[in-house]
Amino acid sequence: MRPLRVTVAFFFAPILAFAGQATSARAALSESRYSRAHSLGDNYSFDPRDGWQSVNVTNLEYKYRRNTSNGDRSHSISDKKSTAHPKSGLGTTISNVVKGVFQGLKGFGKPEPVTITWYTGHDLENPSCWANGKWAPTDESFACALTMEGWTTRPKCFKFLELCKTSKKCVFVRVVDTCAGCAAGSKHVDLTKAAFGQLANFDEGILTVQLRAATEPEGWYEKLWGPKVDDKD
């Protein structure tokens, strides 16, 4: 009977290997729904009744240095403008992803105009939404920082937002930080490089895009958005 056991083992080994590859492929496909720009369709119309708002987008490459005495950021403009694109490392591009996206993340809410830029480097460290330094975004995260003072209706920490340059180029980001260096009272959203890079080249000037609030996704990818939190956290 030993030859039979060996034959059975060899028979099932390729099946198990294939199943493992299929699981990995499904996981990569699922994550790419959130780390790549998605489309709303050819005939989609940005209607304020659906929560859309006009947004000015720039690539001023603001730099922040956190003040260790109060945890805030100071604001300045870098000497050089980067035109390099971030490394993706987040899965492969897929077609027709909007169906998968809207099974979890979905835009909604009241529109309001905001300005958008992008940040990188040390500016990513110690996001204010976590008091204990539990997590920090990277250039490949899909996260943002919002004006710290004067934007009374700004989305709260850990909320999701949807940004669209066109109906065929949209991304979702999570609020993880505040921007003390952004002008007080301004409605300013600072994006990580991966999120901004899905909407436009870094060497583009001022853009006009659409923004609205979004629901939480069904699946969760900590490297994109950071750890989940309880309502009482």
TrEMBL record:
One Pfam family of this chain: DPBB_1
InterPro entries attached to this UniProt entry: Expansin_CellWall, RlpA-like_DPBB, RlpA-like_sf
Segment forming the signal sequence: 1-19
Region (Disordered): 67-91
Domain of life per record: Eukaryota
Sorted UniProt keywords: Signal
Compositionally biased tracts (Basic and acidic residues): 72-82
Coiled-coil boundaries: none
RlpA-like protein double-psi beta-barrel domain location: 147-210
Name the UniProt record assigns to this protein: RlpA-like protein double-psi beta-barrel domain-containing protein
Species per Swiss-Prot/TrEMBL record: Psilocybe cubensis
